[in-house]
Amino acid sequence: KQNQILSQSITEELKEIANVLQTRLFETKIRESVAIKESALKRQNMFIYKPTCNACIDYENFIKEMENMNE
């Protein structure tokens, strides 16, 4: 619960900073994943190592968000 409150607070601060800098803050959040660390240790692409892990899904959503920026 406390981590969630801290995360929300940081997100609000980042939105304010982005506004001052006249830039954009993406909505997609990339979650931590053990699979990313494992794939790095094995020197494998995480999308090949474990494509269904939460972080891979998050990165795919981030890419979609970036692609939709220009529409």
Q: How many DSSP-defined strands?
A: 0
The end-to-end distance, rounded to whole angstroms, is: 37 Å
Number of helices: 4
What is the structural class? mainly alpha
> Biggest β-sheet: count, sense, barrel?
none
Shape: extended
Query: What are the secondary-structure elements, in order, as H or E?
Result: HHHH
The low-confidence parts are: none
Radius of gyration: 15 Å
Mean pLDDT: 92
Q: How much helix, percentage-wise, in residues?
A: 55-70%
Q: Determine the strand fraction and express it as a percent band.
A: under 5%
Structure description:
The chain has helices spanning 2-20, 34-41, 46-49, 54-69. The longest helix has 19 residues, at 2-20. The mean pLDDT is 92. With 71 residues, the protein is mainly α. The radius of gyration is 15 Å and the shape is extended. It is built from four helices and no strands.
Which SSEs are present, and which pair or pack?
Blueprint: H1 2-20, H2 34-41, H3 46-49, H4 54-69
Supply the key terms.
71 residues, 66% helix, mainly alpha, 4 helices, single chain
Task: Summarize the entry for a quick read.
The chain has 71 residues and is mostly helical. The chain is built from four helices and no strands. It has helices at residues 2-20, 34-41, 46-49, 54-69.
